[in-house]
Amino acid sequence: MSTTVTAAPAKPYSRYDCCRTYLVQMPLIGLSTAFFGSLSLTASLWDRSGRQQHAIARIWARTLLRISRSSAQVVGGEHLLRGAPAVYTANHLSYMDTPVIFSYLPFQFRILARHDLWKIPFMGWHLRRSGQIPVDSTSLRSQVGSLNRGVAALKSGMPLVVFPEGGRTSDGHLKSFMSGPAWMAIRAQVPVVPVALVGTYELLPMHVYHLRPRPLLLVVGEPISTTGLTTRDVDALTTQTHDAISAMYYRYSELTEDAAQAAGPIG
Length: 267
Fold this sequence. Notes:
The structure is a single chain. The chain is an alpha/beta fold. It has one domain (15-263): Glycerol-3-phosphate (1)-acyltransferase (3-Layer(aba) Sandwich), CATH 3.40.1130. It has 8 helices and 7 strands; from the N terminus they run H-H-E-E-H-E-H-E-H-E-H-E-H-E-H. It has helices at 15-43, 51-68, 97-104, 123-129, 140-155, 180-188, 200-203, 234-263; strands at 72-75, 87-90, 110-114, 133-135, 160-162, 192-198, 216-220. A 7-stranded mixed sheet has the order 1-7-6-2-5-3-4, sandwiched between helices.
């Protein structure tokens, strides 16, 4: 989907921004991740359902948002399919996307994510013990195996969250989507729910480690039914999902930018 909207130019970081991030916020984020990761590991010794680990992950996520000093809200929450499996597909802007998703999706789910994350201490241990699904793109066989595990989770009644771009954007704009989420949804015959994350790129862009507090949004679009679709419809469903997320993202990006400018600097 083409658009003429361009990302707002980034403002230069002040010395205060840098000092606050490096001396206070990043150490607190690291300590919180280690603390809640250890709690999750402990809970995994007796919690086979993943419910307690998911609750711990939600507290961790909200703690990180408080540390980042950024407020968030959900738009279109009525489209969330509580109690039913679906593939929630979201754009990927920042490391802060995951805390927003864990904070504001009000049900247990599993994440499909790059297998590299499983190598990170504490976070990777939580991902492994809580039943999240790593996607190994080093070979076609590994990719198919990951997608089949996702289909099995959906058929068991567990919702999935997927970032179909395969990685964070480097410029704040959506990249092309991979077809895996659409394929899983069609194979399991569950809806695709488009989700637009807004504001996390400006909060913490790729390859930048200075936090800039701002309003964040998790925008949920209308579910896209896969009833009667076959794997021949994967490309069309992928395009439809990309267009839905793109439309929501660019529409609400302007609103959050206006809100951030109106609020002025925080701290």
